[in-house]
Amino acid sequence: MTKTVTLPVLGKVTPSYLGMLVITLLVILLWLVTLTMLFAGGGKLQEQAFENGQYARLIIATGAVEGNLPDVAPPPAEEQPPAAEEEEPVAEEETTDDEMISSEEPEEETPAAEEDEPITGQEEMPSEEAAPEEGAATEEAPVESTADAGEVVMEESTVQVSVPLKQALNRAMLETTPKGLKLPMRSENGGEPWEYYRKPNTSSDELPIVAIILTGLGLDEEATDEVAKRNEFLTMSFSPYAPNLPQQITRARSYGHEVWLDLPMEPEDYPASDAGPFTLMKDLPEEELKERLFHVLGSAGMYTGLVSFPPGEVFSGYRNMGMVAEELKNRGLLMLLRTRSYTSAKTEDHTLYMNRQLGVQTRGTNASTEQLLTELEAVARSFDYAIGVAAYSPEMLNKIEQWAATLSEKSLVLAPVSAVIERVDD
What is the 3-state secondary structure of the chain? Predict the structure, then answer.
């Protein structure tokens, strides 16, 4: 007779081999289910407890407790990181993908940047060759600038420059003194500042030339600006005492004017007239004279030469004038004197003399400006050149411009002062 054994599920078990076998199978089955959930991702076993055939398990994914063991409860929320732990890897993977996509973009641009490097080098090379073109660009509206001395704040202009000048300061032609003054000098290869900064001479060798230089400019910036906008073949000479002198000079050059500096010399009626603190006085020691000369030379850059100032100066007739003339020549600058009180074979190739002083009554003459301009024409026809010097005034400027407009029909040419040096040498 067979004995029947009742096996309540997870209840009390009859102590028999069959009962123990069933329990063992249940345990094995339970572990198989646990492992399946653990690796299949359907749920993760957090905890499993047995007590008298009762069990409980916590599913991490849902936070629920399964089984018939009432004492087992879900852990507090603060101890449940699973949801965050499973979401974070997903977010990180998405972010990582985006980062990988964005990181690929610069990798594609990097070769392009490397290819641009030779192009940049090629662009830098023509910058020096393009320096004359910068002068040409000033034919249009110049641009405002607040850079180093020698650059200038410009306004729009309708003036068209037919013969532009170099607009860049040539630092190879600068010497810095122990006192910090920057003086013009010949370059190592012998280049002279007057040749570098002059206005190119485009006049025909077959026609006589007349040069007009206006002095005392820069002290009145508005009046100087008006001169700059006029005929580009008028030569402008600036006072070394003018405010914003480097900027004013650059502005004048951008309009096509050759630029000179006034060289203050002892006036005939000194001390009734005083030419300022840089005036070259006939009784000063040579060392102090040179210091004053250096202050004038270092007041600006990009000029062609110096013109004696004021009319009626007497310094050029004294022995120290030789030292001044030689210093200017050694530095590659021209000099324009109002009288022939000084002459020397050592400096004659860098020295010019005016032919007429416009607007100044001397030795009791009452010649008008128009008469003096006519005399300049006659001198030019006789010697192939002539130089007139005039102090600026609105009336004088208008008269000169009206006269200059008639030169072509007289077979004469208005030219910068530096053009005369070529005629003198011939």
Answer: CCCCCCCCCCCCCCCCHHHHHHHHHHHHHHHHHHHHHHHHCCCCEEEEEEECCEEEEEECCCCEEEECCCCCCCCCHHHCCHHHHHHHHHHHHHHHHHHHHHHHHHHHHHHHHHHHHHHHHHHHHHHHHCHHHHHHHCCCCCCCCCCCECECCCCCCCCCCCCCCCCCCCHHHEEECCCCCEEECCCCCCCCHHHHHCCCCCCCCCCCEEEEEEEEECCCHHHHHHHHCCCCCCEEEECCCCCCHHHHHHHHHHCCCCEEEEEEECECCCCCCCCCCCCECCCCCHHHHHHHHHHHHCCCCCCCEEEEECCCECHHHCCHHHHHHHHHHHCCCEEEECCCCCCCCCCHHHEEECCEEECCCCCCCCCCHHHHHHHHHHHHHHHCEEEEEEECCHHHHHHHHHHHCCCHHHCCEECCCCHHHHHHHC
